[in-house]
Amino acid sequence: MTRIRLNEKQKEILSELYTRIRRTVDDLPYTDDFETLYTEFIARSGVIMTRHDVWRALASQRKGKRLVRKER
Question: Nearest 5°: phi and psi at 2?
Answer without folding.
Answer: -90, 130
